[in-house]
Amino acid sequence: MLFTETRLKDAYIIELDKIEDDRGFFARSWCREEFKQRGMNPNLVQCNISYNKKKGTLRGMHYQVAPHEEAKLVRCTRGAIYDVIIDLRPESKTYKKWVSVELTADNRTMLYVPEGFAHGFQTLQDETEVFYQMSEFYDPECARGARWDDPAFGIEWPGEHGHVISAKDRSYSEYLL
């Protein structure tokens, strides 16, 4: 695996280090030891799949608070997404800053989202599927969200968006400092 730290400390873009031959390729997509060596949370306890019918579907910005803050490893297994993370750690030098990366089934790139970050995405194609690995189980008491269009963050979403946004994601209030 090839790890590139984003401009947000502790968040990584991960690319496959492929071994290719006539059959195709082989690559490792997760390794506990490689995650531990970089200070990344290696304990992945739950996997989720998000299937999205329409281009322009927006999900987020989701996170969990203590004691169930979660790290995520996100990969697009079908279609393409514009994936966004926000650093919500008040002590961080990049507090309230965001980063985006395009994850596609073709590029097989992954995004590691550390604890203390919000995560969301916009689909760039119809029939898009996203695979998440989580370091904590979902806890509705700790689940939170920030508005995808909150001026406190100024996220620049591509093209048209919002064809499909859940009522829950629309209901999040602006982020309080």
UniProtKB/TrEMBL annotation:
The active site is at H62, Y132. It comes from the Bacteria. Pfam families: dTDP_sugar_isom (PF00908). Pathway: Carbohydrate biosynthesis; dTDP-L-rhamnose biosynthesis. The keyword Isomerase applies. GO terms for biological process: dTDP-rhamnose biosynthetic process; polysaccharide biosynthetic process. InterPro entries: RmlC-like, RmlC-like_jellyroll, RmlC_Cupin_sf. It catalyses: dTDP-4-dehydro-6-deoxy-alpha-D-glucose = dTDP-4-dehydro-beta-L-rhamnose. GO terms for cellular component: cytosol. Keywords: Isomerase. Gene3D superfamilies: Jelly Rolls. Its EC number is 5.1.3.13. GO terms for molecular function: dTDP-4-dehydrorhamnose 3,5-epimerase activity. Belongs to the dTDP-4-dehydrorhamnose 3,5-epimerase family. Catalyzes the epimerization of the C3' and C5'positions of dTDP-6-deoxy-D-xylo-4-hexulose, forming dTDP-6-deoxy-L-lyxo-4-hexulose. Homodimer. NCBIfam families: rmlC. This is dTDP-4-dehydrorhamnose 3,5-epimerase. It comes from Paenibacillus whitsoniae. The gene is rfbC.
